[in-house]
Amino acid sequence: MSLLPALPLPSRTTTIQPTLRYRLFGRPLTKIKKEGKDQEEDKENVTTKKNKKAKKSRRWRCCKNRCCVSPAPQEEETPEKCHLSASQHEVVATKRPVEKEEEPVKDDRFPQALLTKKDKVAVTTQKKLRSDHIKCLGFPNPAQICYINSSLQSLLTLEDFVTAISHQEQVWSLIPEAAVLRTFKNISEHHFSSDAQEKLRLLAAFKRAVALWAPEFGDHQQKDAHEFLTVVFDQIRYWGPQLQVLTAGMGMAYSCPVEDHLMFKMRNTRTCKSCGAGSTREEDFTNLSLDLPAGGGTVENMLDNYLMETELEYRCECGATKSGQRSSFATLPRVLVLHLKRFRYTPTFQLEKIHDAVNLQRELVVSSGQHGACYSLVSTINHIGATARSGHYICDGVDPDVGPVDLTDRWFTYNDTVVTQTSGVNVCNQRQRSSYILFYRRHVRGQQCHMCTAVKHIM
């Protein structure tokens, strides 16, 4: 066996051929070719990194001292924003803790362009659902019952009144004859239903219940909306005493919704023009009928004219025959119903309609012997037509979804089955010559308006 001659070990200064070195150490030939250059480049890179690090440290300290802001990642805002370079922003961003992505804010006040695609789809869907929801609020009119539909829509706008009837069903259901309350509750529960046939059946039942006590409403002729509302209020009040007697022995209580929300007392004071002697009496009302002044006027003016002193033919004990009579509010209701006398008889006993414009006020201040109150207009019943013998009733009312303070001013116009969206401003402008019955709701305690300062002066 022959031995190969021993190869001399390469020293650090000895240059080895590339092929032999590749065989001995397994290194690529390209590295060998560039070894000398790589060593020089490595030395330059180390020097460059040291210089960059020193420059970056000096620049950061300078910026930090200038802005006086600690680079703590937990701070959300800084008193003054540092103007860092792009590379420095990247370094800071890598050090900040990872935060959860917040959900986009859903608010109608934000422009549509700022909403995400998901939010735009949600808003579109909500508008479509609301549009379909509005269409369901109407009532069918098969045979001249627009006076019933408009009256019901105005009553359904009074949420507290509707709730008072529903919550006492266990009490008034004890009297089967109280059909007006039962049918009204059924109508309120199906107000948002799209079943026209069911609504038609409920309207017919309500009409029959009213006609049992007022037969003039049993036919299919057009009737007066004010007379119809008055009959409905009287029927609901009729069952109050009987229900209170029944519940007294059962540990329950009944409170008439009409008396709690719509009824008020008027004080009539008569004074003799000769001796000054007088008398006072109080009378219950569910609404006031106001005369329209010649040429029109405001609701406040018509109310003041109603409360103004008038002459009265009355024989006093002193022998005088002339007295003065003045009316005033003894109590104030939660909902004040005002009837505008648009129909009157001519000297030849012909019924005619008055088309004079009335300035519908959104806010109304009313004083009484106890205190004053501020009211807001929430619904109107309007008579559309040229004569008193023909025409059509429609209703305007606030959106049922709004709260006590509505900044959007959303209203609906109820024209039988057709329901359209409007605003209180448009109602006051468009119904000046057709408004017939006005519903004013009293402000709750703590609810302020620009008229409340006048109330404080009255009290």
TrEMBL record:
Belongs to the peptidase C19 family. CDD domains: Peptidase_C19. GO terms for molecular function: cysteine-type deubiquitinase activity. The keyword Hydrolase applies. The gene is LOC108895163. The keyword Transit peptide does not apply. Keywords: Hydrolase, Protease, Thiol protease, Ubl conjugation pathway. The lineage of its organism: Eukaryota, Metazoa, Chordata, Craniata, Vertebrata. GO terms for biological process: G1/S transition of mitotic cell cycle; protein deubiquitination; proteolysis. It catalyses: Thiol-dependent hydrolysis of ester, thioester, amide, peptide and isopeptide bonds formed by the C-terminal Gly of ubiquitin (a 76-residue protein attached to proteins as an intracellular targeting signal). This is Ubiquitin carboxyl-terminal hydrolase. It comes from Lates calcarifer (Barramundi). Its EC number is 3.4.19.12. Pfam families: UCH. Residues 137-443 form the USP domain. GO terms for cellular component: cytosol; nucleus.
